[in-house]
Amino acid sequence: MRVLVTGGAGFIGSHIVTALKDRGHEPVVLDALLPAAHPGTPPLPDAEFVRADVRDADAVRAALRGVDAVCHQAAMVGLGKEFADAPDYVGCNDLGTAVLLAQTAAAGVREVVLAGSMVVYGEGRYTCGRHGTVRPGPRRAEDLAAGRFEPRCPDCGAELAPGLVGEDAPADPRNVYATTKLAQEHLTASWARCTQGRAVSLRYHNVYGPGMPRDTPYAGVASFFRSALARGEAPRVFEDGAQRRDFVHVTDVAAANVAALEAVGGMPSGGLVAYNTGSGEPHTVGEMASALASAHGGPEPVVTGEYRLGDVRHITADSARLRDELGWRPRVGFARGMAEFARAGQRTSAAPAA
Ligand SMILES: NC(=O)c1ccc[n+]([C@@H]2O[C@H](COP(=O)([O-])OP(=O)(O)OC[C@H]3O[C@@H](n4cnc5c(N)ncnc54)[C@H](O)[C@@H]3O)[C@@H](O)[C@H]2O)c1
Ligand SMILES: [Zn+2]
Asked: pTM of this prediction?
């Protein structure tokens, strides 16, 4: 299968290119090599490569020639520095997706796999002893400042038990980036309806592994800790370190993309199917910092109590649908993945700090 991989020079995209080639497929990479993602001279993809922006309709049209499916990874990632960044995010991620899909429609390509994200869910799923499943709103700044990090039941104020988020959970994007990732899904679903195309969104959890850009603000917490350790410093863990996440290895995410590309042609036409893409092994950010510090042989993490307003407390996916329907299995467990990452190289990045 010949696959156009947008963003194929990036962290996840480059692993997808390798995974596609390993399965005998033929990737074509289209990537603008954004300076924020690639300062200096980025390594060029080991595949047919077009340096272009997904908003460049002519370049996309040319790159789509002979292509069977599109794997759309190109996006501006990160929380951004300020709201003034919103037009750049929307332009890159949503106008970019619209241009790509319009050309995909015109070229008669009917299969799209999209890099989705868990950020579309906002704060995860919680259970109150009295009220059952509840959806707490954003945490209040005064609670965070006072060290009250756990969200409370919106009805009775009781403590809540975090649970796993299913694909049917309502969307609740909490920042500009999250909003653009949700809009990408809606655009892709509209494309599928209008063209009788078939689409998958893989809602990635926190992806980590070799080639991870250094010091990007988004999902980059593993990267921050790794960089601190490389400088001989202790990882600085925000809040109380008990925030739960699902850290999924980049090679497993690449394999999920290949599985989705190979399966999407057999899915019902006219719609988009979302799959949570996580390891299924939730861990706290504090546990992750400790695992990296001990594998690296560096100083123990320091829990600082600092916080970021846009952060959610716990967000962990239920990836059963991906396992059951696409037969995907994560292969790199937390202990091994973190131990390897503690020693692996990162890509230098000049992405803005949040
Ligand atoms: N890293 C994570 O934990 C994570 C989690 C959830 C979702 N995602 C999604 O996965 C995808 C890949 O992310 P990544 O972590 O590999 O980021 P990355 O920055 O390493 O890669 C993105 C690539 O896309 C390219 N790009 C960006 N905008 C473009 C445009 N308009 N035209 C052409 N190329 C463009 C960049 O040059 C870069 O090579 C993104 O869609 C991101 O939203 C990532
Ligand atoms: Zn309650």
From this structure: 0.94
Given a contact cutoff of 8 angstroms between Cβ atoms, the answer to whether 126 and 135 are in contact is yes
Q: Which of 177, 204, 208, 307 is catalytic?
A: 177
Task: For tokens 């909490």, name the residue.
Answer: 174
Question: Domain map of the chain by residue range?
Answer: 2-124+165-343
Residue with tokens 């199917």: 273
Angle between helices 221-230 and 285-296 (to 10 degrees): 30
Q: Which residues contact 95 (CB under 8 A, 6 or more apart)?
A: 55
Burial (Cβ within 10 Å: 0-12, 13-18, ≥19) of residue 273: buried
Give the pocket of ligand 1 (CB within 6 Å).
6-7, 9-13, 31-34, 37-38, 53-55, 73-77, 92, 96, 115, 117, 181, 204, 206-207, 213, 219
CATH code for the structural domain at 2-124+165-343: 3.40.50.720
- Residue 161 Cα to ligand 1 midpoint, Å, equals 32
CB 78 within 8 A of CB 218: yes
Q: What's the whole-number average pLDDT of the chain?
A: 92
Weakest-pLDDT range from 27-41, 184-198, 248-262: 27-41
Integer Rg of the chain from CA: 20
